[in-house]
Amino acid sequence: MKWWYILPVFLLCLVAIGLWQRLQRAEQPAPESVAPVVVNPVNEPIQAIPLQIALNETKVKLGEKLFHDPRLSHDNSVACASCHNLQTGGTDHRQRPIGINGAEGFVNAPTVFNSGFNFRQFWDGRAETLEDQINGPIQAPHELGSNWQEVTAKLTAVPDYVAEFAALYPDGIQPHTIRDAIATFERSLYTSNARFDQFLRGDGEVLTEAEKAGYHLFKTYGCIRCHQGVNIGGNMFQTFGIMGNYFADRGTETQADMGRFNVTGDAQDRHVFKVPSLRNVALTLPYFHDGSAARLEDAVTIMGTYQLGRRLAPNEVDLIVQFLRTLTGTYKGKPL
Amino acid sequence: MSAARMRYSMIISGVVLILTLLFVKSRVVDFTAHERFTRDLRRLQEVDTTLNQDILKVRDGLLTYYDTLVTASAELNGLYHHIRRSIPSFIGAQGQQDITRLLDAYAEVLASKARALERFKSDNAILKNSLQYFPLVATEVAEEAGGHLLEQGPVTELKNLLRDLLVYTLLVREDLTLQLQARIDSLSHNRDAFASAVERSKLDTVLAHAQTILTYAPRVNSLIAELLALPLAQRSAALHMAYNRHYERALRTADNYRLVLYLLSVALLSYIAYIIVRLRQATQALNTANEHLEERVRERTAALQKTTEQLDQRNQMLVEQQQRLRAELADAAAYVTSRLPLPLTGDVKTAWQYIPSEQLGGDAFGYHWLDEDHLAMYLLDVCGHGVRAALLSLSIANVLRSQSLPGTNFYEPAAVLQALNNTFPMEQHYNMFFTMWYGIYDKRHRRIV
What we know:
By secondary structure, chain A is an all-alpha fold. Chain A is built from 13 helices and four strands. In chain A, α9 (209-220) crosses α13 and α12 (296-308) packs across α13 (314-325).
């Protein structure tokens, strides 16, 4: 009749399980969290870019490699970097980018620098995140013209990639891990320590009087109403042509000129675009979604006319442009 | 394995299974998940409040950039998606359904808020720009025109427009809308009045900004009203309440399971105690039975001993009796032997050896002098052995010795035998008979008759 010994033993087991569960709970690792970007607020509408942003360096390296890899395009001819050339301000300096088979895009390629600070991606803001955004160019026939199946297959054939992905992601090479690596790299493309940021941090001597006058005009003339925040833009939508009909004056309206309307179908979103960042704006020519303004002065003038309802005098434009040139920052410690 | 054993092991596995089930059910509420979930729900309300404050700050010009609005909006969105993914698993199907439904409702409002927020950001930028520029440009035009024009009516009109528009925006006097629109329209019609003094396009700019203010001020106000009126806080409060309700229900259920587990454990322990008590009782009963058994064995042994003693006693008696009988027999035998005649000495000598087959025998012999010359000799054998035969043979021998057969000539053997035959008929003597030799020795004549 030894059987009844089992029951006290079993009750002991229950107690043991309880204790074990308690221990297990304590052992649970804190979920990996992306450290929020801390911006030290200054009493200005423009905020300085943090000097350091903590990111997984291995992911950044892998993302950089992918960013420059033309195998992400259907015919292995175009990489992300083809149109977002880091040597030329993260843009291609073309009015419209050229994809595979020489196909031309519909809008100007925006800079990839500081894109991590943008609240949406694309001129029409159709992508909520950088990860989302990557789906666009990869699959657009006039850009990389590929698809995720093709891209993952090509990358899986490269032993280096297999090893690098395996070291970072349990899932290995997958569309979402490719996107994560590239987006992490893009988040590392912040250009801190621009002369203007030094000014914001309290160094009053770093700007010339003309540049300070330019900044004053920038604020008093209303540019600051849209181009504000850490990215001097990139955090709101605005109609192009508030105080005048830009598109009628320019002529030949395209589908792309409809802007956010193409995303929402809302009549109020006609000609609405994401306000672009003015960081490194001196290097990201040509300007606007249509790349119609080749010079910064042209862009400032057009903005004054159609957005602010102001006719800016050439010397005012010049001052504003001088201010805008102070927004060129450094990447990896070197000026862009 | 026997059937009883099988049944026992099945009962044990059943009990173990039920206890395990109750244990698992009683621990179903994951407090870490609950903590996280409620933290997210609280954060949802906090962020929404901060967002609303920031919206008002932006309207009042206390906040001159939108990054905080963007961050708050993104955080709300992120929180919403996170909450949706992490509804704790201890919430029952009904709860999951309720919470998901409330989350859907929340998402709807959140999307409306995000849309309104985007419009607010855009429209506010436009309004603020015109509000900043319009007074400057209007004053500039008025002064320019005032210096040149003889007719000051339109200039006054422009000044009135400036004043009213500022009052309109500062005090949110939407009742002035129509009046203001009329002023703008009239100035627009009378543009030619300024023609000689001010560039037409400059006047157009003034009017465009005035129109912008008139259009965008109520829009921005209504957007702010909408943003603050959107029931995001109520929805998240409803969400929190629904979650709390289902959380408490889960707690209660877990408590019930815990209670049942407790009761079952107590019952089980009582049962085990009962079994121990019963085992002890059984052992005691066994011990008592054991003691009784010994007693009984003792009793039986005693009885057996008594019987044996009695038997021994009886045996002893028998032996004694037998000895007595044997002694009596020996006495009888000695007597019988003593009755045998002594060996004769003189002229006639006799010698004998008498060995009976038992202590007493039916054999006898004798001799005696009838007179000086005649010696009577006889030998007889009664049939059978033992006391009976001995008694008969002794009687016969006595008869012969005492010559007590009346009328019989003891010198004549035939007559003696005839007389003895008549005296001891077989029928009167227990069916015993005897054979006998009887003779007379005549010493004188030296012959046996």
